[in-house]
Amino acid sequence: MTPLSKTLKSILMTLPILVGMVLLIGLFQTVVNPEAMLTLFRFNEVLNSFVGASLGAVAAGNPITSYILGGEMLEIGIGIVPVVAFIIAWVTVGIVQLPAEIIMLGKRFAIVRNILSFISAILIGILTYVILQIC
Questions:
Q1: Which pick of 34, 67, 99, 114 has the fewest CB atoms within 10 Å?
Q2: Which range of residues forms the domain containing residue 112?
Q3: C-alpha distances in Å from residue 41, one per residue of 76, 104, 127
């Protein structure tokens, strides 16, 4: 089997998962608007960082969209800390994309990468809070 045919077979095998992933992300982005998220951020800044990272991890998207969504979140009154955690998790963690990532990169690598990215998003959100308090 040639490398080209192996590549084509791999693409065809993952195509249904990729299509499903794109549809789920589009559905989530359509159903959940920033105003609805405002009700989720009623806690202290540390817990808001966790909430923001959790929402970003489930939603997942590209950086350009995250900046626009983050700006809208700031405009409606969500604090900078959960927005930072949300944007980082939005771009680096992908719960919806996990099945495709497991197929392409392996189960252990995909899970460890997502867990470390999620923890990093929370820590960066908390560090943002600490730095803003110092300044």
A1: 67
A2: 3-134
A3: 11, 35, 18
Is pLDDT at 32 greater than 80 in this prediction?
no
Distance CA 79, CA 49 (A): 10
117: CB partners within 8 A, 6+ apart: 88, 89, 92, 93
Task: Give the number of other CB atoms < 10 A from CB of residue 120.
Answer: 16
What's the number of domains the chain is made of?
A: 1
Cβ neighbors of 69 (< 8 A, separation 6 or more) are 34, 61, 86, 87, 90
Summarised one tens digit per residue, pLDDT across range 64-86 is 777 877 887 888 888 899 999 99
